[in-house]
Amino acid sequence: MQLKHYKYILIGYSAILLVSLAVFYLFPRCVSMDSDDIDPGGTVEEHIISQSIHQALLEGKLEQLDDIYESERWRFDFTGRRLEITADNEWFDSMIAVERTAAGSGEIVAHEYRTESPIAHRLTPYRVTLTGNQLKLANPEQSQIVFLAFNKDMTVTQFAGSPPGEHSVLIQQFWSNRMLYLHIPADVEIIYDMHRIPLMFVEEE
Amino acid sequence: MMSLTRTNLAAVVKKQYVFKLKSCSNLLISLIALQLIAILFTMGGMVDSMSIGSSYMSVTIRFYSGDGVFTFSLIWALATAFILTMPGYRNIDFTFVGNRLSSNLANFGFLLTASITGGISATLGSLMIRNIVYFSGGSENILGTNFFMGPGELLTAMAAAALYLLLLSAVGYFSGTLVQWNRILVLLLPALVVGTLIFEAGNYNRRIIWRAVDFFIQESSLALFALKVTATVLLLWTGAILLTNKTEARA
Amino acid sequence: MNVIECKGLTKQYGRIDALKDLSFSIRENTITGLVGPNGAGKTTLLKIIAGYLKETAGVVKVFSGHPFNNLETSANLVFIDDNMAMPATMNIEEILNAAGSFYAYWNRELANRLFDYFSLNPRQLYKDLSKGQKSTFNMIIGLSARCALTIFDEPTTGMDASVRKDFYRALLQDYLQHPRTVIFSSHLLNEIEDILEEVLLLAEGRKRLHLPVSELKEYAVGLRGKEEKVNRFTRSAEILRRERFGRDSIYVVTRYNFNKTTLQKAREAGLEVLPVSTADLCVYLTARNKGGIDDVFNQD
């Protein structure tokens, strides 16, 4: 290599770096989640297993919780007297509750609820189908989500007062609880295998 | 008879420095190569990650940073400064006009230049990584936290990186000079360092080496850090000058 | 004025004396040939003069200053040997430009003309040059630098005979136009004696002699003929060399301190009176024994 080749490499690399600098500061960005969007507080337990959700589910007060929304709804006409609930897989993997509605309403409604999380809307819904008098529930396929995040460079953290090597993002903040909530007329007899489907019944007031 | 040339140290150092920028440009190229390799490694998965999952979801977060580029640059600074003291490079300083002091000063000038260049480019490399992640990862998958680096942070990072590179280059230069001063130290010096590490492993209070490291990495004020680095570097440079002033050249 | 002065100069490597008690001086604007067998201490002496090595004892002065680690000395001398450290990143034109930046009296034009004459390719890297080309390139630097003290230490390694001749001519031409002090160490004394004014002969770290070339040429005389006759004429002379030819013929080299009539008598007695070349003379003067390699075989 001659000196001029070294010069070209130096100039080329400098150019790439300067372009990086320009792009970084000038290119308009939309990042899906900024730090403000993510609740920075909370412990692992709070985010993953929420006793309050369980309680609200049993009391039929799910809609009153702030961070829960209905993500999916299925409506089936049903006039039968007996309903068999089956799990498509070995067992049904989520919380599932049944609330009795007025007898003779002629419909079954299934609601899927999710707790708010940055990824909640990306999860694939449950699969709920009604054939004859059989309500089939299937676990959704596993949604694999990869986020790309950044740590502050150690040359920054040392002088920014934050301890080095600590991720500012808690992965638990991404956890989303989900549950299935069924409205079934009171006069329909429900048949299910409690080992495969952990059905809970909302307590009557 | 042609009249004798009067010369002064500054003039010779300047000439040697300019010459050195050209004659050692291969070393700067190796810095670029190392930084690019570090960027490749970072993109290829040399990153921190964490996962959480259940039967219906699996979330993984991969954490990118410019630390890989910075670390590779540090190694480069240490090795390059060491190499500069070896006869292959040192003798070039005596091919034309120069003495030991001018050779050392020109080397310091080169290492200072390289440290500043390396500090700036390593930090810009961190931005390059962010850009690559942004454009190849899909904006919906990017967590914005720490993505942005304000101009203030950028300048801090550049200054800190340059200072660290300068510090490591001074350590490399001083060790190289020691080794050239007495070849036995090629074996003795690493043995001493490793020996100290092993000896002190059990006793926190006597960890000289870790204390020395902490002296720099625990300093949270950039100004004080700059002061510490400058003082240390001047000390090491002076040591190197004193050690070389009696050694023979082109021998 | 003396450019170089040495008094009792000694250099030891460990317990070995590379130079021992060396005293001499070199006047300004002379070309001095530094000669001597391998290991005589030529390179050590030159590197001490150039300020690369430090003397162990004695006094050495270059331009009236102590050369070791001396920037003034370095700025006024150029040291060319066959082991020049050159950057691997620069082609020879770039190295030449860099060299030019260091020397106050650098002659760019001369460098370019020599470059063309010896048809060096400016784009080539130094490490890709042949040994002879490297020497040629170094020589160009040595000449173009026009330093008050120009040192060539065995500069012709690998050069063709014709290139060597050109080099000697070039050195002489440039020296005549721009007088300066040149020290030229070489083992090819017969090739360079024409351009030399003085010869400094070293052996085993000591000065053997330091004379103008003209005096060296008449320093000794060789006599060849029947042994008894030769012996008669050389009985009281200082014998530098004695070689046997055939059964009873002999060749003897002695200091030239005969008068003309003595030599005339020798010729009449049937002896050949031969001049002794400076190169041979230097070999005889530095040989450990008077018979040369023959002594190895004639142990009687």
Low-pLDDT residue intervals, each spanning 5 or more residues of chain C: none
Q: Tally the helices of chain B: what do you get?
A: 9
Give the chain pair forming the largest contact, with residue counts. A-B, 61 and 64 residues
Q: Order of strands across the biggest sheet of chain B?
A: 1-2
Given helix and strand content, the structural type of chain C is alpha/beta
Shape of chain B: globular
Structure report:
The complex is a heterotrimer of chains A (205), B (251) and C (300). Chain A is 22% helix and 32% strand. With 205 residues, chain A is an alpha/beta fold. Chain A folds into two domains: 1-30; 31-201, no CATH class. A five-stranded mixed beta sheet of chain A has the order 1-4-8-3-10, with helices on one face. The longest helix of chain A has 24 residues, at 3-26. The N and C termini of chain A lie far apart (86 Å). The model of chain A has no long low-confidence stretch (mean pLDDT 81). Chain B is mainly α and 251 residues long. Chain B has one domain (9-48, 61-181, 219-244). In chain B, 69% of the residues lie in helices and 6% in strands. Chain B has helices spanning 9-23, 25-43, 67-84, 87-90, 100-137, 151-181, 185-200, 208-217, 222-244; strands spanning 48-53, 57-64. In chain B, helix 5 (100-137) runs antiparallel to helix 9. The mean pLDDT of chain B is 90. Chain C starts with a strand and ends with a helix. Chain C has helices at residues 42-49, 71-75, 92-102, 108-117, 131-144, 161-177, 189-192, 213-217, 227-234, 260-268, 278-286, 294-297; strands spanning 2-13, 16-27, 31-35, 57-62, 77-81, 149-153, 181-185, 198-203, 206-212, 220-226, 239-245, 249-255, 272-275. Chain C is α/β, with parallel strands linked by helices and 300 residues long. Helix content of chain C is 35%, strand content 29%. Classes of the chains: A alpha/beta (205), B mainly alpha (251), C alpha/beta (300). The interface between A and B is large, with 61 and 64 residues. Strand 7 of chain A pairs parallel with strand 2 of chain B.
